[in-house]
Design goal:
464 residues, alpha/beta, Rossmann fold, five-stranded parallel beta sheet, 18 helices, 10 strands, elongated
Length: 464
């Protein structure tokens, strides 16, 4: 006999169908309680839904998951439009593990996950947060009412610990829940009782929260543009030229290779972002960087127009899926900053999405840095005169003519507009934890050497 009443099951199925039709993704986060009981409750709810529209993800809070970027991993598992993801444990179990091992600052971690929740919600994801309140007495009293409870070690199937097993007091958990009980992502608390009662209560909460989102939608908040940081483009000297280029290049590439070797033996990773004007030398500079590296330890990600799959997710999703594991390097040839430049200029995002983007990107980069990544953001600077010279040279060279398109000329015609957006981007995102390095690339050789120096210095700082 099903534990969830028919009327509640019908509400869940109706809500799932409406989410699918409207293209709204949802995350159901299950925290608290013993894994054996919580898993049976989750299984019962899953059994009422259309399985083709549901995903299940278990996150083990041990600080040893495949990616060092905890917030990023939750984003990579977030559902596409119209789908529902059940998270068996999640970012709050990660905070409890953080408290236990003293491996991070609890307050800063709470801020990080709060920003992640806000990012997901404001980008259209419904989040239902359920905490299972289970006392030791209740666990013993109601255990016999739960079907198929295996009271022995089943490896990864039963290896979760609740906060008491981890030496965390009820008071510490209450403080965490209180601090994270926000207006936009509130907690629903469920007392663990007999199986049928508990399953029904959880199902009713999920149905109610989904119905509320479907009925009321998202109320957008004001997000004024905050140009609060120095613009490093103002300090660029485009007259800078390279000296002894060949010898300097060989020396710096050798040093970069040594730094890669050191990083490969560490828990650190390197994320490099290349942005800049068309024809500013991104491709040739990346080739000089990659030429110094062992291909086993790096990836170059060329960022183009998003695919249909990427468009079905929140906009940072496609970047989170390409972040490096410890000891590795990822180089982005263009990046998430497209939201603040081409998408804004060409009307590919809404004004609200644009004005939110700086805060979302700053929080994203803060999480990267806090999780052990070294983030290097490079802007290649050239003059409009030098760009025109390079465009014409490409047109005249049969080996390079494929690199110049009508879109390049169209973008050039909007130089002044792009210039305004780039300056605003710098003033909004040149943060202390993820500053921009402006590389003068009027002389390509000088620019390449400065990029190599920047990467070497950043890696030394992280590893020393």
């Amino acid at each position: 006999m099903a534990a969830i009443p028919r009327d509640v099951s019908e509400k869940l199925i109706t809500a799932q169908r409406s989410l699918f039709e409207k293209g709204i993704p949802a995350i159901i986060l299950m925290e608290g309680g013993k894994s054996a009981m919580v898993d049976r409750i989750t299984s019962e709810v899953l059994g009422t839904l259309e399985p083709r529209g549901v995903e299940y993800h278990h996150f083990k809070a041990d600080g040893k998951r495949g990616s060092p970027f905890s917030s990023m991993e939750y984003i990579t598992k977030s559902p596409a439009r119209g789908r529902i993801s059940f998270y068996d444990r999640g970012w709050y179990s990660d905070i409890i593990d953080c408290i236990r091992k003293k491996r991070c600052d609890e307050g800063e971690k709470l801020i990080e996950v709060s920003r992640m929740e806000r990012y997901l919600i404001e980008n259209g994801v419904v989040i239902v947060k359920i905490f299972m309140d289970e006392t030791e007495d209740a666990a013993e009293k109601h255990a016999d009412s739960y079907p198929i409870i295996i009271d022995r070690d089943c490896g990864y199937l039963t290896d979760d610990l609740d906060h008491r097993d981890m030496g965390i007091s009820d008071e510490e958990v209450e403080a965490m829940l209180s601090a994270s009980n926000t207006v936009y992502a509130p907690w629903d608390r469920v007392d663990v009782e007999d199986f049928e009662i508990t399953a029904e209560n959880v199902a009713r909460i999920i149905a109610r929260r989904l119905e509320q989102r479907l009925q009321y939608g998202i109320i957008p908040e004001e997000c004024p543009v905050k140009e609060q940081y120095h613009n490093p483009r103002e300090d660029a000297d485009l007259t800078a030229e390279a000296k002894d280029y060949d010898d300097a290049l060989a020396e710096k590439q050798s040093e970069l290779a040594e730094m890669q070797c050191r990083m490969a033996r560490s828990k650190h990773s390197l994320v490099v972002v290349f942005e800049g004007w068309d024809a500013s030398g991104k491709g040739s500079t990346i080739r000089r960087v990659a030429g110094a590296l062992n291909p086993r330890g790096y990836n170059v990600i060329p960022v183009k127009a998003p695919t249909e799959e990427e468009l079905s997710r929140t906009y940072l999703w496609r970047f989170c899926t390409n972040l490096p594991r410890p000891g590795r390097i990822t180089i982005f040839d263009r990046s998430w900053y497209g939201r603040m430049m081409v998408e804004a200029v060409e009307g590919l995002c809404t004004e609200t999405e644009y004005c939110r983007s700086a805060d979302e990107i700053n929080a994203f980069e803060k999480a990267l840095v806090n999780s052990g990544a070294t983030l290097v953001k490079i802007w290649l600077e050239i003059s409009p005169q030098e760009q025109l010279k390079r465009f014409r040279a490409r047109e005249e060279d049969p080996m390079k003519s494929w690199k110049i398109t009508e879109e390049d000329w169209r973008n050039r015609s909007k130089w002044d507009v792009y210039d305004l957006y780039v300056n605003s981007m710098m003033k909004q995102t040149n943060t202390p934890w993820a500053p921009w390095t402006v590389v003068e690339s009027e002389d390509k050789k000088y620019g390449r050497l400065k990029v190599l120096d920047t990467l070497i210095d950043s890696m030394k700082k992280a590893l020393d």
